[in-house]
Amino acid sequence: MYKDNNINKFLVLSSETIRTALRKISENKNRIIFVVSEYGELLGSFSDGDFRRWINDKNDINLDSPVEDAINTHVVFANQKIVDSEIYKLFSKDIDLIPIVDNVNRIISIVHKNKNIISIGLHQISDDSPCFIIAEIGNNHNGDFKLAQRLVDQAIESGADCVKFQARDLKTLYKSAGRKDISDDLGSQYTIDLLSKFQLSNKELLNIFDYCKSKNITPLCTPWDHQSLTLLENYGMEAYKVASADLTNLPLIESMTQTGKPLICSTGMSKENEIKITVDFLKQKNSNFVLLHCNSTYPAPIKDVNLNYITRLKNLYNVPVGYSGHEEGYVVPIGAVAFGACVIEKHFTLDKNLEGNDHKVSLLPSEFKIMVQSIRQIELAKGFDTKRDISQGEMINRENLSKSLIAKRDLNHGDIITRDMLDIKSPGQGLQPIYMDELIGKKAKRNFSKGDYFFESDLTDEIIQPGIYKFSRPFGIPVRFHDYKKLSCLSNIDLVEFHLSYSDMHLDLTSFFNENEELEYVVHAPELFENDHLLDLASKNKNYRKKSVEHLNNVCDLTRKLNNYFKKTTNPKIVCNVGGFNTKGFINNNEKNKLYNLVVESLRDVNQNGVELIIQTMPPFPWHFGGKSHHNLFVDPIEIKDFCSKSNYRICFDISHSMMACNFMNIKIEHFIDIVSPYVAHMHISDAKGVDGEGITIGDGDVDFPAISQLVNQYLPKTSFIPEIWQGHKNSGEGFWNALNYLENYFGS
């Protein structure tokens, strides 16, 4: 069971047509839609079955009839105040979705009954969710409540999602009523002796659960008997762990299923046929559960772990599968995640030398933290079982390191291309050599000079030409000094944005410009300067920061010199990435505030007379020349608003960067625009995919241009923009013209 707040795909207005409702049912793939009033109130549902009933009752079938004519008003729903266990009981063989309504009957979320997605507190457990990591404290508190609190604190610090304890009523659990029995073997005597000494009282156990909640970490517990289950259920435990020792204890498991709570079931000590019996039983009881592969030996020999069994459990039962580890160290759980484990449970202690056999197979906080960090890296590395494409970093390296097809001699438009006309040379900025046979026999689409690149567009019949564009705002394209003349005259652009490299800083401007250039201009400051210096006004290294200020002052000087040629531009804008990145990870808010203050301090030393520095919005994972980084500043819209309102700086709103930031923060880009729009001075418009997918063909990524164009046109009607397209300058700017053709549909006048 899991809660979905993205409800629009499940809703249709009562006044909308049956045709529209059928289309939405097809799109959401759940065979049902919920019908609401114009105020969002739940009126009923409409399903495939309702549609068939409606057809049978009609002589004249009109799909443009309002859907309210065909709805089922006896829909099962739940109030937002009902607990999850009660909601779960509303599901049946025929009911997979339950709408949750507020006090005035408006739908606020949809709860799914899905065997492969399980919700525990704020966490979802599924193959597509972050691994749910449990610090198994068990009885490692050794009966000491203060030690239990310290264990919880350290588990939080180590990155655990959940801390788990154990509850036993020794009087009802053991045939000896928890007393020493000389007839028991040594192992049983040892276990009862430990438990009798190291149990928390029921009151202490419930208090430690409250302590967990006060610290915002999910508490779970394993009930070893019916009496303990009653205690935990009366408390309101959100889910239950079934111990390996109880996987065959169907009476206890049945009692757990009757609570309606999710179960996490360890399979250690059970044969495969026994696992099957229990799984069949759980499915018969309509239970939501996770299986944990486990070897219940303390410590488990590495040779007996058999991580391949995770895959077998998945294939056999089609349920979420995790791993509960009792081996020494943290390497195996990391490997289990690579095998597809969506839950990891590992014992946790502050001292491996304490009394009790669990301590010896437990991880210390420092070890647990390394395990969690490594698991998160493995999750990122796993990726998706989809068609392979190249990453942004690979695109950069492909451009720099691979080879291209080039013209071996001059070619005229219309010439038939033959093998002897082609050569293969580095760098890889043109068509890859693998397409040589496809290129041979084609007609040249333009005149080629010796050494000119061929491009992918040379393989098609389509010719992308610059046009005369109609936008309601100033627009332009990014250029370098060397291609300004070639590209700027091809269309009716209003401005150019000079993307500087550090070598451009030393060029003679008279070689590129006339005294009275007609266009306006913006400058994009380099990120990389001589000696591998990445501009960083937030660096904690004072000398590094001073050097960054020096470089930015040089950019301001060059911009003022450009004014001698571009006299239409007053107070030219300089787009700047001010820094705040690192390769190790993201920092906390307190540290970020310090970096924002360093940016302000650094900018005071930059001579901004006659220019305006505008700070570019950034993605969470920028690509620098040294590879992928983590960006801490100018990613979050609230932080951008706070910075700009206090410092009076404006921003360059980079839609691609901010789309990736929104994906990372799980917020809507419309929300981002609403917050930052008062501070936007200029825009870069391009597309993005995921949290680090730049270089996406415009229209193929996550940016909903029809939706955001409405906000941009409303809030920023006169703000200038360029299409910032990866390698858009190639083949006489065909990437820019292609993007402008697309964007004219949404931002055109």
Would you kindly provide a written description of the structure presented here, covering whatever features stand out?
By secondary structure, this protein is an alpha/beta fold. The chain contains 24 helices and 35 strands. The strands form 10 sheets. Strands 12-11-10-17-16-15-14-13 form an 8-stranded parallel sheet. Strand 14, helix 10 and strand 15 form a beta-alpha-beta unit. Helix 22 packs parallel to helix 23. The longest helix has 21 residues. The radius of gyration is 32 Å and the shape is globular.
Q: Helix proportion of residues, in percent?
A: 25-40%
Number of strands: 35
Strand order of the largest sheet: 12-11-10-17-16-15-14-13
> How much is the radius of gyration in Å?
32 Å
Number of helices: 24
> Termini, distance in Å?
48 Å
Shape: globular
Low-confidence stretches: 182-190
Descriptive terms for the model:
single chain; 749 residues; alpha/beta; eight-stranded parallel β-sheet; 34% helix; globular
Compile the SSE list and pairings.
Elements (H helix, E strand, L loop, with lengths): L1 E3 L6 E3 L4 H11 L3 E5 L5 E6 H9 L21 E2 L4 H5 L8 E5 L5 E6 L5 E3 L2 E3 L6 E7 L6 H13 L4 E6 L2 H4 L12 H13 L3 H13 L3 E6 L2 H10 L4 E3 L7 H8 L5 E4 L5 H13 L4 E6 L13 H10 L3 E5 L5 H8 L4 E5 L9 H4 L4 H18 L9 H10 L2 E4 L14 E4 L10 H4 L36 E4 L4 H5 L6 E5 L20 E5 L3 E2 L3 E2 L7 H21 L10 E4 L4 E2 L6 H15 L8 E5 L6 E2 L2 E2 L1 E2 L5 H11 L2 E5 H11 L3 H8 L3 E6 L1 E3 L3 E4 L8 H11 L4 E4 L6 H18 L2
Parallel strand pairs: 2-3, 5-6, 10-11, 10-17, 11-12, 13-14, 14-15, 15-16, 16-17, 20-21, 21-22, 22-25, 25-27, 27-31, 31-32, 32-35
Antiparallel strand pairs: 1-7, 3-4, 6-7, 8-9, 18-19, 23-24, 26-30, 28-29, 33-34
